[in-house]
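Changelog entry: the Pseudouridine synthase record was regenerated in this release. Current contents:
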Amino acid sequence: MEEVLRGPLALSNRMINRLTRCRGIRLNGRMPWLGRRVKKGDRLRVAVRPLERSDLVPEPVPFGLLYEDADLMVVDKPAGVNVHPVHPGETGTLTHGILYHWQSQGFEGRVRPVHRLDRDTTGVLLIAKNAYMHQLLDRQLKNRSIGRIYLAIVQGRLTRETGAIRLPIGRDPTHPLRRRVAEDGAEAITLYRVLASTEQASLIEARLETGRTHQIRVHFAHLGHPLWGDRLYGGPGKLIGRHALHAERLSFTHPLKEEKMTFSAPPPQDFARLMEALGLRGNRPPAPTA
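Regenerated structure tokens:
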């Protein structure tokens, strides 16, 4: 039976152990021995959507809903909102808002972001509604089969219209929040294409091959082109009150429906106003490739 659980159902060892402890696996209505051979006609039931409850109190935090089904949702995250609490007692996060939305539907669960967006980064974010779906989507993320396209406004004009930034990223020992390019850091790959530029600024389309903390911000700051509004990495602080980064597009394969899904969200007003003020007019060339 373990071959069925790990093969067709793609359950991790951790989830199998959890389901075993909570009696969430039934073979012909009984708790089975995992080494038992499954025969034709057997009925195997696995509780991959267990009833769960969050410790957080739901709050009406606004966000954009792009898609939702029984197992996952895709949201448009606003600026100035953490995805989840980063310290005890924090309120007003996206997680609080999603729980409030679920409460209105009569649904209870735990919010499981599949990837991350910084507090001031806007745009498309993928959320799993149960541990099983999170496991399946996390596998796609690690296999680099989830496509993530960002728009960024950086300082100055880049010397190359397209490129691949392959520079490892690690913690900055001089600042608790900052990251930096470091030889002993984790692998980090950003593919980019310049959509529009002036001497003052460039509109960049970037695709993440990896998902390190502050990856796009660190890579372009290291090249001498920090994001507009990114005071942490030396970007120009005028015209926008946050770093100019927007998660524009997300694509993945729905693990249960086996359908390719793509979602997009237009840049928010402050990003669009900055483009206007800097004279940037972007076209839509094909996304960068490896």
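The two ends are 40 Å apart (CA to CA).
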